[in-house]
Design goal:
Elements (H helix, E strand, L loop, with lengths): L3 H36 L6 H16 L9 H17 L2 H15 L14
Amino acid sequence: MRTWWIGKMARGIIFAIIALAILSFVVMFLWNAVIPDLFRGPSLTFWQSAGLLLLSHILLRGWGPWRHGNGWRRERWRRRFEEKLASMTPEEREKFRADWRHRCGPPHDFVDEKKPGV
């Protein structure tokens, strides 16, 4: 039985705690440097800034699944793209691929074409 995932999970939890602490200190410092002077607002403690971070995350991002790089949208885009490719004829599909190779591929000057016999 492999136990590598326990170490990986422990490192992730430790990283999350350290990141939360650093972000909380940054929020506390910025809040206490700006808000009381400008708006005569209250100063924050460490735990209040951590709560403010959590509250802003809940309000702005919600509790939806966290995917790196907006994975849900990427999957939806990929599914629509595959449906579009499936509806094309083989000639249209090859023309589409050639156009995108031309647009997104390396510049034609830098393409290293191997010569036969070398």
